[in-house]
Design goal:
The chain is of the alpha+beta class. The protein has 3 domains: 145 residues, no CATH class; 129 residues, SH3 type barrels, CATH 2.30.30.60; 82 residues, Alpha-Beta Plaits (2-Layer Sandwich). 20% of the residues are buried. It contains 14 helices and 10 strands. A 5-stranded antiparallel sheet has the order 6-5-4-3-7. A 3-stranded antiparallel sheet has the order 8-10-9, with helices on one face.
């Protein structure tokens, strides 16, 4: 490539103007694979491509926003929001690639520019897809949550779980495809790929055996998203720990324990071992409170007190569905009263049980015979006549000698 090529692209008047404007060093001294004027032109093309990409993105987004305002569907809004950012780089790469063709660069330089432009296009498309999947899943979740009533919490939780797992699967697939396309642009990587394909049977067997547990865990995550034994937000007991399902990934589940600890459980645990799910069908739950009382406690009055506590002092914890009080057990000293209450979820049920227990104990303390008592019967009558030791006289009320003498039965 020489300066004659540059002037051949321009008219005679433009060529003369360019000769006068550019220093001679730009036209006579090459730098690397290109001449200096080509480097200058490439820099100007890249800067112009960046500015043109921003300008074209702004125009395209304004037109898209106006178009989406004419429709009631929310999907087009998510599509436009996903394009903010990736569209700018995509248009910039196209403008730079087109401008580089006008410079008539050498083969090596042209190949490098085309490679960079293709890489940017692949990366921006992958970025766009990742953003669209994220925004679309959030849009679907919000739409279902708004359309569903309060009694349809299970459906919302199930959808959140499926979207979380499917989104991660889509993210992994997009990243893998984008990385593969980027690497396959290089000749060395393509040669390695052909060699791997030639030995795909043996390599697949070795990888399958080495990653058997990882693959099974991955498949367990997909199976869990379909069968849904647990969902995000469910109240569970795992490994004797009570908490809520906070996050579900493809390989593990994060359970938020009641004391704010996090329990990380492998996905296969929920498919192979039993666990308790307190909100599988609905979050409603029953709770019991047991107190010990004296036999002389009025059970009917205790039932009335429980009803009063739930109606007036439950602080909104009681959902009004179930309540009752029964004598469930007794011993030779006391009887056991069990109060049954209901709540909207496990957290409210725990607080309600503690409140009812405190109030019932306080009520029993105010009763004359409320708290349990230990009963004993003493018999002071002794069978048969009493014999006094020799030399003593019977005790008298006058305090005379012999008044503080212990009576002894015969034979003792």
């Amino acid at each position: 490539m020489s300066r004659s090529v540059l002037f051949a692209l321009l008219s005679s008047a433009q060529a003369e103007s360019l000769r006068a404007a550019l220093p001679a060093v730009f036209l006579t001294r090459p730098f690397g694979a290109m001449e200096l004027w080509q480097w200058l032109g490439l820099g100007l093309v890249m800067a112009g491509g960046w500015l043109a990409g921003r300008a074209l993105e702004g125009v395209a987004l304004r037109m898209a926003v106006r178009a989406t305002g004419l429709t009631r569907s929310g999907w087009d809004d998510q599509l436009v929001a996903s394009g903010r950012g990736p569209l700018r780089y995509l248009l910039s790469a196209v403008v730079v690639a087109a401008g580089a063709l006008a410079l008539r660069l050498p083969a090596e330089a042209r190949h490098a520019v085309e490679l960079g432009a293709r890489s940017v296009v692949i990366a921006t498309v992958a970025w766009f897809l990742l953003r669209f999947v994220k925004l679309a899943s959030r849009f679907v979740e919000q739409t279902v949550a708004q359309e569903s009533s309060g009694a349809d919490v299970g459906r919302v939780r199930g959808l959140r779980t499926q979207l979380a797992v499917l989104r991660r699967v889509a993210d992994v697939a997009v990243v893998l495809v984008a990385a593969s396309l980027l690497l396959l642009q290089f000749e060395a990587v393509r040669n390695v790929g052909v060699s791997l394909l030639a030995s795909a049977g043996l390599a697949g067997l070795v990888i399958g055996l080495a990653a058997q547990k990882s693959i099974s865990t991955l498949l367990a995550g997909i199976q869990l998203s379909i069968t849904q034994p647990i969902r995000i937000g469910d109240t569970v007991i795992v490994e004797n720990e009570w908490g809520w399902v906070e996050e579900i990934t493809l390989t593990y589940v994060v359970v938020k324990v009641w004391d704010l600890r996090r329990l990380v459980v492998p996905m296969s645990h929920f498919l192979e071992k039993p666990f308790q799910n307190w909100s599988k069908v609905s979050p409603d739950i029953l709770g019991t409170v047991e107190v010990y009382a004296d036999f002389r406690v009025d059970v009917q009055a205790a039932r009335a007190e429980l009803k009063r506590i739930l109606d007036e002092e439950s602080r909104g914890l009681w959902d009004g569905k179930a309540q009752g009080l029964q004598v469930t057990d007794c011993t030779e000293r006391t009887m056991k009263l069990r109060a049954l209450v209901s709540a909207a979820d496990a957290g409210k049920a725990w607080d309600l049980r503690c409140l009812v227990r405190e109030k019932l104990i306080a009520w029993l303390q105010r009763q004359p015979h409320g708290l349990p008592r230990v009963r004993a019967e003493a018999n002071l009558e002794l069978p048969g006549p009493l014999e006094l030791p020799r030399g003593t006289t019977p005790a008298s009320s006058t305090g005379r000698p012999g008044g503080n003498v212990l009576a002894v039965r015969p034979g003792e």
